[in-house]
Amino acid sequence: MPLLTRMIGAPLHVDIGPGTVANAVFIGLFVDGLLAIDAVDSLSDSPLAVRIVLMLAGVLIRQFFVLRHRGQVRWGLPVSGVALLTALAIAIAPKMTATGGEKVAFSAVQGVIKERCVACHAAAPTQAGFAQPPKGVMLETSDQVAANAAKIAETVGNKYMPIGNLTQMTDGERALVATWYAQGAATR
User: Fold this and answer.
1) If pLDDT is split at 50, 70 and 90, which confidence band does 132 have?
2) Separation between Cα atoms, residue 152 and residue 113, nearest integer Å
3) pLDDT confidence of 50, banded at 50, 70, 90?
4) Which of 125, 159, 181 is nearest to 45 (CA)?
5) How do residues 103-131 score in pLDDT, each as one tens digit?
6) Per-residue pLDDT at 116
7) Cα–Cα distance between 117 and 66 in angstroms, integer?
8) What is the DSSP string of the chain?
9) Taking Cα atoms as reference points, which of 103, 107, 120 lies closest to residue 166?
């Protein structure tokens, strides 16, 4: 006897009609999308709004398939869903940093890194809870900073680092690091 039948006390009858496979695939993709949203959340200042827009777009697209299998075709539903997804992608896309203006001195960036990053990213971290630098990344010397410049700019720019903003990095400091990287990440 199948486990599900034992659990509910009656046999489970599934109607394999038109759209069942499409609906099952869609539900699987939707659940996978919800599980992967944490990556999107780190790019957005409003993760709840991102989830709501994703779910609304999913509902619109799924409703199109439900109605289509009943013989009703309403193209406005998937078009609206795709428009919402496109608008969301544009809204949460990383912003380009201006490279013009005054050249950012490495000493300014190094000051930010020493104050906001080195507490964890050192050979002997001073931040409580860290016995070694995360992922082995150390940022104590200019050579170490240069070797990790792209990752620093990415993780600081999307607010993934500092973790939970433990060291209280400001948006101005984040912009300084992003501009330094956009200008070529010179360390000398």
Assistant:
1) very high
2) 9
3) confident
4) 159
5) 889 999 999 999 999 999 999 999 888 89
6) 93
7) 51
8) --HHHHHHSS-------TTHHHHHHHHHHHHHHHHTHHHHHTT-S-HHHHHHHHHHHHHHHHHHHHHHTTT---THHHHHHHHHHHHHHHHHSPPPPP--SSPPPHHHHHHHHHHHTTTTSSSS--STT-SS-GGG---SSHHHHHHTHHHHHHHHHTT--SGGGTT---HHHHHHHHHHHHTT----
9) 120
- Give pLDDT tens digits for 18-27: 555 555 555 5
* Residue 178 near residue 97, CB atoms below 8 Å: yes
Q: Which amino acid is present at 106?
A: F
- What the block records as the tokens of 108 is 């300014």
- Compute how many other C-beta atoms are within 10 angstroms of the C-beta atom of residue 179: 20
Q: Where are the domains of the chain?
A: 3-92, 106-182
Enter the pTM of the model.
0.53
Q: Which residues contact 157 (CB under 8 A, 6 or more apart)?
A: 94, 97, 174, 177, 178
Tokens 């539900």 locate to: 27
